[in-house]
Known about the structure:
Number of helices: 3
Largest sheet: 13 strands, antiparallel
Distance between the termini: 37 Å
Strand content: 35-45%
Number of strands: 13
Structural class: mainly beta
Mean pLDDT: 86
Order of helices and strands: HHHEEEEEEEEEEEEE
Low-confidence stretches: 1-7, 29-43
Shape: globular
Amino acid sequence: MKTIQSLPNKKMKLNARLKQYSRTSRLLWTVAAFFPISGNMAWGDLASLPGTASLTPEKKGVAIAEAAEIRDSGWGDWVAEAKMILRNSHGESSTRQMRYRSLEQVEAGDKNLVVFDYPRDVKGTAFLVHTQLVGNDDQWLYLPALKRVKRISANNKSGPFVGSEFSYEDLSSQEVEKYTYKFLREETLEGFHAYVLERYPVDPNSGYTKQVIWLDKEEYRSLKIDYFDRKGELLKTLTQKDYKLYGDGFWRADKFHMVNHQTGKSTLLEWNGYQFTQGLRDRDFERDTLRNVR
């Protein structure tokens, strides 16, 4: 079971966010973030906490989302490598290799950087995201063939990221404030007891009308997300598998599999080499460094 070893960072992030939520929601979040697990009580047992039985589906949904976010707070920074396998509707595949860096922000959205190393035609391509808690994220794409940095406009965020089934929108940090929520039910998914929530993007430029997300009740890890397009039809499904525990108790999945139900295409991300607390700073995530990123 996870213990809270990154308490100072968690406290900073918690204090920065508590002002924004209802009294009941603040109580749930504080309990979920700081109380150790003991006896038969698990992290997911919100129903066992005082005052939770009367929560509306909307309030329960946001309380679960907040608890999930604070569970994964305090990591500071991390790096990893990933193999991206793209498959078309005929089963033909191509492979890309990339590196990923992420820097946690206490009072803002996180910063993320993706750099491609293989194959040659995409080597040096870099994608930088400054996630905002509200409003449009700042996203830039460096294309070495053109030797220029392109800003991704809010209207293009639903477009495919380097030909994959992930959109630019999918690569931003999934901050709680970017959605409204509704609790749907509890059910078992591949052996995990899970909460099932609907979340609705606040941003009118989102490529999705809603997402349905499965979170395991014990560790609040994302297991599956269904994405519905602007017509309200099922577009894609993301499954996250083979979670491992790193650092001071941070879960990361080794496999992200995105399937596009409308085109038959898919993208598999196979992660490896997760390392936390690498000393990354804001200067490592500046737009002007994209041309020379290593």
